[in-house]
C-alpha cells in the first residue's frame, strides 16, 4: 500500500488533536504538523486561510494527499476511525465485540459528554456573553470532568492500560482529558484507576511524543 502524505493541523493544547497525534504515533505513520493557535490574534482557526481547510474552524484537521488528490478530514472521532481503517495494526479496538463496545463507551464519555462542554468555545461563551467569572467557569469545568471520570473509574480495570494489556481508543481519549484536568487544577486523586492507566500509557513513546509539551508550538 502506498502511504498517503499526512498533514495534521493541530494546537498543542487541543485534547482532540492530542488523540490524533497518539493514534498516528502508535501506528508508526509519518505526518507533518501545521500549528493553528486557538488564542493568538483572535484565534488562527478563525482566519480565512483556515476556513478554507476546515469550515467548522476547529482543530484537528487532517490533510490526506494521495495520487495527486488532497482530501481534508475533520472531527477527531472520524479521523481516528479513518486511521484505524487505513492502518489497522496495531489495532486500537479489541477483537471481542463486547470489549469493543466498552472501549467505545469510555471514548464517548470523554468525546461526547466531557470535552464538548469544556472546549475553548464554550468557556469563552461562559466568560463573554454570559458574563460568568473565572470561579464559576472553573467550577463548570471541574464538574463535567469529575462527572465523566466517576463513570469511567468504574468501567476500567488497568492491566496496565485502561482496557487491557495494550492501548485502545479508551486510552487515546482518557490521557488528554487527564492532562486537561491537571492543567485546570481539577482534583482527580480519587480516581486511582484512571491515574494508573494514564501513567502506564505515558510511559510509551507514542504517548509521550504526542504530549502538549513535546509539540513544535508548545508554549
UniProtKB/TrEMBL annotation:
GST C-terminal domain segment(s): 96-219
UniProt enzyme class: isomerase
Keyword line: Isomerase
Cited Pfam families: GST_C_2 (PF13410), GST_N_2 (PF13409)
SUPFAM superfamilies, alphabetized: GST C-terminal domain-like, Thioredoxin-like
Domain GST N-terminal: 4-91
Gene3D superfamilies xref list: 1.20.1050.10, Glutaredoxin
Any one GO molecular-function label of the UniProt entry: maleylacetoacetate isomerase activity
Similarity annotation: Belongs to the GST superfamily. Zeta family.
Protein name: Maleylacetoacetate isomerase
